[in-house]
Amino acid sequence: MKVLLIGGAGRVGTFVTPYLRKQHDVRVLDLQPPKHDGVEFVEGSVLDPEAVRRALDGVNSFIWMVMRRGQGGSVTTQDVPTILDNYDVNCKALHLLLYTAQAAGVRRGVYTSTMSVHYRLRAPARGGRRYEQEELTALDTPSVYGLTKGFGELICQYFARWFDMNLIALRITGPRERENWLKERRDRPDRVYADGTPQGSKIFVTDEEDLPGAYLGALEAVQTGHGRFDAVFIAGDEREEEHNLSKARRLLGWQPTAQRLLEE
C-alpha cells in the first residue's frame, strides 16, 4: 500500500516513518524534506490545494500528522499567532485535505489527534479513570490547540458521513524518543508533570516504537468497511490507570509494550 504522510517530516512522522516503510511505500508532504533517506518527498504546504493534489496522486491511504503550536490539556494561554496557526492547520487545511482526497478516490486515512482535546484535570469517571470511553469523554479542553484538534475530529466525522470516508483519529499523548522516554519513566515514576497548578497532572508518555504500532493498526483497520469514523485513546498507560485502552486493543490490536524496557 502507498501511504501519504502529511506533515511527515515533523517529530511524529520521523518516529513513524522507519516502521511504516517496513510494510508500505511512503510519500511525505511537508515544507521540509523528511529526515530519512530514500523517502519520496513532495514539497509544499497543506494550505496549497495544488500541492495537496499532487501529493495525493497515486496513493491508497494517508496519515495526517501536521501540528503547529501544540498545547497541553489544561492551559488557556493563547495569542493571535497561536489562534491563527491552529485554525489554519487543524481546521482549514484538514478540510482541504479530506475534500481533495475523497475527490481523488482516496477515502481511507488516519488523523493524528491528541489527548489534549480533553481537559487534563477532569474528574475521574465512575470507573476511576479520567478517560473511560472515547465516545463519552467530552471534548472539553481549555486550550486553543486542543479545541481546534477536536474540531478536526468533527471535520473527519463530517467526511465519513457525507463522503463515505473511512477515518480513524488517534488521540495520542506525549510522544517521546526512546532515550527521553526511558529517562522520564525512571525519573517520574508517579507520571506527574508541572501544568501551572499546585498539584500538577499525570502525562502517560508514549515510546517511539509503541506509536508506530498504533498507526499501522489504524491503517489496517480503515481498509475494512466504509463511511465510518472512530476515535481511539493512545497512551503509554500500560496499567490503564487513567485511559481505558480496550478500544485500541479491539480495533487496532494495539497496546503499549515499551514498559518491558524498564525491567532490563
Q: Can you characterise this structure?
A:
The strands form 3 sheets. This protein has a 7-stranded parallel beta sheet, sandwiched between helices. A two-stranded parallel ribbon has the order 7-10. It has a two-stranded antiparallel sheet with strand order 8-9. It has 264 residues and is an alpha/beta fold. The model has no long low-confidence stretch (mean pLDDT 91). It contains 7 helices and 11 strands. It has a single domain (2-175, 206-257), classed as NAD(P)-binding Rossmann-like Domain (Rossmann fold, 3-Layer(aba) Sandwich), CATH 3.40.50. The chain has helices spanning 11-21, 49-56, 80-103, 144-163, 178-187, 210-221, 246-252; strands at residues 2-6, 25-30, 40-43, 61-64, 108-114, 166-172, 175-176, 192-193, 201-202, 206-207, 228-234.
List the helices and strands and how they pair.
Elements: E1 2-6, H1 11-21, E2 25-30, E3 40-43, H2 49-56, E4 61-64, H3 80-103, E5 108-114, H4 144-163, E6 166-172, E7 175-176, H5 178-187, E8 192-193, E9 201-202, E10 206-207, H6 210-221, E11 228-234, H7 246-252
Parallel strand pairs: 1-2, 1-4, 2-3, 4-5, 5-6, 6-11, 7-10
Antiparallel strand pairs: 8-9
Helix pairs in contact: 1-6, 2-3, 3-4
